[in-house]
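Re: the request from the purification team.
They wanted to know what the chain is likely to look like in 3D before they choose a buffer screen. I agreed to run a prediction and write the result into the notebook, where they can find it.
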Amino acid sequence: MSDWNAAMAEAIALAQDPSAPRGENPRVGCVIVDPAGDVVGRGFHLGAGTDHAEVAALAEAGERAAGATAIVTLEPCNHTGRTGPCSEALLAAGISRVVYAQADPTAEAAGGARRLSDAGVDVIAGVCEAEASDINREWTVAVSRGYPFVTAKCAVSLDGRVAGENGRRIRLTGRDANIYAHALRARVGAIITGTGTVLGDDPELTVRHVPLLPAGPPTRVIMGERDIPEHARILGDSAATVQLRHHDPGRALAALFDRGVRDVLLESGPTLLGGFIRAGLVDEFVWLVAGVWVGSGPHGLPGTERLDYEVDVVESRALGQDVLLRATPARKAA
């Protein structure tokens, strides 16, 4: 077999299995193909501390792995963490060829391809690289730079308001947009908000309306120095809650990265949101534009009017009576 795209497509599908959690580790799929072209082993990573995809696929293949090809979505790791290096497991099983899509971007785990090649294994890189990389987009960005991928979500009216007169909380978006927002929560490791939002709106910031992923509910993170009442809903036992008693976005992201968080959802008021934007720390904007005109009340982004800031819109579509706009920064202010 010389065209490995079909086998890689199966490995990519395995990596996206609903049981494959998002989080500190990447999502990886692997298939083992014997010399006759038959798939004899399949596996995907189930999360930190569990067998990597290659090891799971090798276990299913057993003795049939000898002389076979391993097709894996991410370069096999070459380090010992909670589990041993996949490069050594592949060599021990007698794999003759390894085909992978995305190179490992981490300094500690990279090098598996060279280790295998040096041992005489035929190594083919870059098969379906774009498709495989998209699975771990947020993780790849985070581990490459050392702080989590940040998605900022904001619901605004047609005239750019996030609340009613004098900051009165109002329902802006409808059911479809609400479900979409909860799906965003389900896929991240943490949700960040500010003390102002907690004290003013008393949000619970839990995942509802959509299933929880295997990694469990995201950690709720409160930024700010003010005390939070013991009866606040965000302190309930439905998810973990952490308060970071400062207003420094970079410091907060560094602390969360050290906790194993690789992607966060920023669901805050305009002040904290503006702080993240001015610091250049937002990777993706998700704007839910409600089909209503409020007329008075706070705007979504006060204090950012003078920023020289451009975005690329990557998605726009209707969500019921509301509109979803997804955008990424095109250029940050100097």
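For the purification team: The first helix runs from residue 5 to 15.
Please add any questions underneath this entry.
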